[in-house]
């Protein structure tokens, strides 16, 4: 009987110590953190950006930075874009964007570097998505209406 009384008296203390140890293991350094920071897309190294100068060829840019994520052609001029997105991802799969950086390399008609630019989220603007539908030819009918209209 005295053992049972001592056991019930120390159980809350042991339980709280166990919970404290488990929560202490969930720190960022242990790998069990609830959020994880990672980079999506291209990782833009600062030393590679410093190597790109006006007048260099597109082939040299491809050697230094790699293939671009996307390209754009404006008449005779071309732009290459390298996009880096840093996100926080929770253990439950939800992601939130911490920062986004776009490195743009502009080429002239001779495929030589004309200019470079670095854009961040502050340089962009928010675009509202239009929720209206474009009307289509004909009517939207349900399955039952389609069957009844065939009779």
From TrEMBL:
Residues 1-24 form the signal peptide. GO terms for molecular function: protein-macromolecule adaptor activity. One of its GO terms (biological process) is Gram-negative-bacterium-type cell outer membrane assembly. InterPro entries: BamE, BamE-like, BamE_dom. Residues 41-115 form the Outer membrane protein assembly factor BamE domain. The keyword Signal applies. Keywords: Cell outer membrane, Membrane, Signal. This is Outer membrane protein assembly factor BamE.
